[in-house]
Amino acid sequence: QICSQHNAEDPSLEQVFHRMAQTETSLDHDVSWFLLPPYWAKMVVALTSFICFANSYDGDFVFDDSEAIINNKDLRAETPLGDLWHHDFWGSKLSSNTSHKSYRPLTVLTFRINYLFAGGFYPVGFHVINIILHCTISVLMVDVFSILLGGLQFSNKGRRLNLAPKTSLLAALLFAVHPVHTECVAGIVGRADLLCALFFLLSFLGYCKAFRENKEGHHFSIFWVLVSVILGAVAMLCKEQGITILGLNAVFDALVINKLNVLELIQKFVHKDKSLENAGLLRKGLLFRITLLMSGGASILYIRWRIMGTGPPAFTEVDNPASFADSLFVRAINYNYYYSLNAWLLLCPWWLCFDWSMGCIPLIKSVSDWRIIALAALWLCLIGLICQALCSEDSHKRRILTLGLGFLIIPFLPASNLFFRVGFVIAERVIYLPSIGYCILFTYGFSLLSKQAKKKKVLAVAVLGILVINVMRCALRSSQWRSEEQLFRSALSVCPLNAKVHYNVGKNLADKGNQSAAIKYYREAVRLNPKYVHAMNNLGNILKERNELREAEELLSLAVQIQPDFAAAWMNLGIVQNSLRRFEEAEQSYWTAIKHRKKYPDCYYNLGRLYADLNRHIDALNAWRNATVLKPEHSLAWNNMIILLDNTGNLAQAEAVGREALGLIPNDHSLMFSLANVLGKSQKYKESEALFLKAIKANPNAASYHGNLAVLYHRWGNLDLAKKHYEVSLKLDPMAPGTKENYNLLRRKLEQLQKKGS
C-alpha cells in the first residue's frame, strides 16, 4: 500500500501515517505476541537462528561436499579464475555431456575464497560462513515479512514503516528455526541456496525502494527497478531458483503497489469490458515496470542458455524415477505426490533425509494406492486458498493469501519437473525459498485464529511451543550433519528402502576399515536396487581384497553389463582378472576402461603392473609414464618406474626418473627411499645416506628404510651405524626379509675385526 508523500513541514504527519496504517491493516491487532523495537526484533531473530545451527560449525565435509569442494579443482589457486565461468558447480566443463549444468559460479567463488583464507580444506571456515549467511537472511526476513504482511508505506522522511511488527517477528522466527533448512546451513553445498536467498531478498527489498520517493502514486525509481533485476541475476548465478524473484516482484507490484483485483481483472478480460484499460495495468507505470522485469529475466535466461552450451543434463532413472515413467498419468500423479510430500515437510519437518531417491518413495502406479489421499488433501487446500485469494471481499486477505501462495509456489517451479527433468525426487534444500510462503500463510492463519480465540495467550503459548520444538529439532538435525556416519545412519529409519542410504553407510564403514559391516550394507543396496552399479563396484572391490575373486568377478561383470561405459568397474574387473591370471582378459578390460575414460591415470598404473608381471618392461614403463603425465603426483607409478629400471640394471635412467619424480613430489618419502637405493648401488653413498635419513625422518617406523640404510652403511664401511640401523629395523619388524641374515653377517664381521684387534 503506497501513500503519497505530503508536505514535509507538517509536524504531525508521521502520526497521521501511523493512524492510516492502523486503520488499513488489522493483522497485528488481535495477535497476542511479543512487540519489540525493530533493532531488538532483529537481534532476537539472529540469536535464535544462530542457536539452531551453531553446533554444526565444527562438522566435517559430508555427502556432496566431497565432490563440490574437496574434489573440485576450481577451488585451487592454480585454476584460472576465468574457468569458474565455464564450469558447472562440480568443476566439470558445461559443454561436457556429463555436466549437471548447475551453473553457480558465484557460489564456487565463495568456496574458493574460503579455501584460500583457510589455507586448505578445513571445514570450520566453510560452516561458519553458512551459519552467518542464514542468520543474515533471517534478519532480512523481518523487513520482508513486514512488507508482505503489513504492506508498503513510507513516512514523509522516506523511512519505511513496519505496519505488522508482531506478525513479521513471528514469521521471521518461524523461518529462522525451520528444521527443513538444516541441509542448507549444516551442509556446505547448501551455500548455493543461502547465497541465492540473500540476493533474492535484496532484489525484493531493492524493488520496494523504487517507490520510496513516490508522489501521488505515479512516480518510481527506474534505478532501483534495474538494481532489482541485477540482484536477481546475481541470485541466479548463485543458484538457478534466483531468477524467480523477478516474477514475484511483478506479482508484488500488481497486488500491493497497484492494488489489482485479479478476479475482477479476469472477469473484465473475459467479458471484453472497455474499462479494462482503466483497471490498473497502465496506471502507475505497472506495464512499464513489468516489461523491464520480464525483459531483464528473458535476457538473463538467454545468456544462461548460451553459456550452458548443450541441452539439459542427462539424469538416470534412479535419480528421478517418475520422470522416466512411460505413462503421462503415472508421471502426473507422482509429481503431485512429490509436491504433497514437500508441503508435508514444511508442515511437519520431523522425517528428514539427506537423499530421497533410489526407492525411498515407491512410484504410485494406480488410483487404488492409498497415497492418492495426500494428493487430494494438497489440492483441496490449494484450491481453497486460491479461491479465498481471488474471491474474498477483504482486499487485505486477498493480498496476503496471494503473496503467500506466490512465494510458496513460484520459487519452487524450477524444481517441479514441469519445465525440465530434475535430478532428484525430493530435496529439502529447494524448499528454503518456498518456506517464505509457508511462513506467511502460517502467520496469517495464526492471526485469524487469534481473532476468533477467547484465550489468545494459550494460542500464543502453543505457537511458542512449536518454535521451541523446531529449535530443538534443528539442533538435533545439525548434529547429525556433523559427520557422514551420523548423517547416513539417521536416514536408515526415514528411508529404509533407499539403496543409496545403505550404499553410503557401507562406504563410510569401508573407509574406516570395517569391511565385514560394509559388505552387509552393500549387499542390501544391491538387493534393493539390482541395477546399482556403484554398489556392485564397491562390493566387488572389498571381495577382491578379501581374495573372494570369483564373486568379485561376477559382480563387476554384471556392473559393466548394466552400464557398459562404467570405466571404474572395467578397471576393477581387470584387477580381478589379473589376480586370476587371466592376463589377456585383464588387458582388454583395462583398455576398455581407458576407452571410456581417456584420462584415467590409475588404470594406466594397473595396466603397467600387468605388463610388468608379463615381463613386458617397455610396455610397463610406457603405461606408468602415461599415468604420471595425466597425474604428475602419482607416486606409485613413479616408484614402480624407478624400481623396474633399478631391477633391470638401468641405474642411470632410474636415477633420472627418481630425480624427476622428487622434483614434482619433493616430500614423498617412498620416492626418497627408492632413489636412495639407486644412488647407493651407484656408489653415491653420501647423497644416498642423506635421502635415507630424510625418508626416515618423514616415516621413522618403516623397517625397510632402516634396513636398507644399514645395507648402505655396510657397503660403505660404516659398520657401527650399519649395526645400529639393522637393530632398529629388526625391532620394528623381526621378520623383515634379508635383514636378519645381513645383521648376522655384520656381527660375524665385527667379531672377526675384534679378534684381529685383540
TrEMBL record:
Keywords: Endoplasmic reticulum, Membrane, Repeat, TPR repeat, Transferase, Transmembrane, Transmembrane helix. One of its GO terms (molecular function) is dolichyl-phosphate-mannose-protein mannosyltransferase activity. Its EC number is 2.4.1.109. This is dolichyl-phosphate-mannose--protein mannosyltransferase. TPR repeats lie at residues 499-532, 533-566, 601-634, 703-736. Belongs to the TMTC family. One of its GO terms (biological process) is endoplasmic reticulum unfolded protein response. It is a multi-pass membrane protein. Pathway: Protein modification; protein glycosylation. Signal peptide: none annotated. The gene is Tmtc4. It is found in: Endoplasmic reticulum; Membrane. Pfam families: TMTC_DUF1736, TPR_16, TPR_19. It is an enzyme of class 2 (transferase). The chain crosses the membrane at residues 131-151, 188-208, 220-237, 243-266, 286-305, 372-391, 403-424, 430-449, 458-476. Residues 311-383 form the DUF1736 domain. GO terms for cellular component: endoplasmic reticulum; membrane. It comes from Turnix velox (Little buttonquail).
